[in-house]
Structures are given as structure tokens and as C-alpha cells.
Design goal:
- There is one protein chain.
- The protein is of the alpha/beta class.
- 42% of the residues lie in helices and 15% in strands.
- The chain is built from five helices and four strands; from the N terminus they run H-E-H-E-H-E-H-E-H.
- A four-stranded parallel beta sheet has the order 3-2-1-4, with helices on both faces.
- Strand 2, helix 3 and strand 3 form a beta-alpha-beta unit.
- It is globular, with a radius of gyration of 13 Å.
- It starts with 5 loop residues before the first helix and ends with a helix.
Length: 117
């Protein structure tokens, strides 16, 4: 989901909260001019793990910042080399009814989709 601002993230995770799952893995990339702190705070209310990624965009928020913010919210976080690598990591960690959610920027979604369509 492109959810690229706090209200978009809030709505996305509100929808995901009704899904039956064991764990929710969020692959997250955000542009640095967005309110990433509020976005991560919304994500931390439901996600079990954040995989921080950076879209191929000069405005990308550094992955260390995203991961650090997630950890401040008490959420485990790892860093991936690219959005596609983040998805691959999530796929390796997920099983059964787990949910993988790619969000935070339309650029992240585009980076993944261009290699999987």
C-alpha cells in the first residue's frame, strides 16, 4: 500500500488489525520530508517487525533512521539493502497466516512492482 503519510498509515493498519494473522512484517520506506516519526508510531501499534528500506529516490529517509525510530517505539527492526531485498527478507521470515505489508511510499511499492510484474 502506498500509505505515505500518518493518516494513510493509520487507515492501512486499522484495516490490517481485523486480519487473522500470527505476525505482521512491515517493509517500510519513507521519504524524509514526510512525518516518519508519526508513521512509525502508527506502525508500531500492530506490526511485529519492521524491515527498513529506502526507495530509489533522492528524498528517501535513511534506513538507519527508520529502523532507529521503530526501535524507539519498542519494535524490532532490521535494515535491507533495497525494497526488493526487504521483501525477500520478509518472505523468508513469514509463514502460514503471517502478513507482509509493504508501505510508506509509492516509490517503495513501485520499486518492488517493477521487478515482480
Amino acid at each position: 500500500d502506498g500509505a505515505h503519510n500518518p493518516s494513510g498509515i493509520k487507515e492501512l493498519f486499522k484495516e490490517l488489525s481485523s486480519a487473522k494473522k500470527r505476525k505482521l512484517i512491515a517493509v517500510v520506506g519513507i521519504l524524509r520530508d514526510k512525518d516518519y516519526k508519526k508513521m512509525i508510531k502508527e506502525i508500531s501499534g500492530l506490526a511485529d517487525l519492521v524491515i527498513a528500506v529506502a526507495p530509489d529516490n533522492p528524498r528517501a529517509c535513511p534506513v538507519a533512521v527508520i529502523a532507529g525510530e521503530a526501535r524507539k517505539c519498542g519494535l524490532p527492526a532490521v535494515i535491507a539493502a533495497s525494497p526488493e531485498d526487504g521483501l525477500e527478507q520478509a518472505l523468508k521470515l513469514a509463514s502460514g497466516p503471517d502478513i507482509i505489508c509493504v508501505c510508506g511510499s509509492l516509490f517503495v511499492c513501485a520499486d518492488i512492482l517493477k521487478n515482480h510484474i
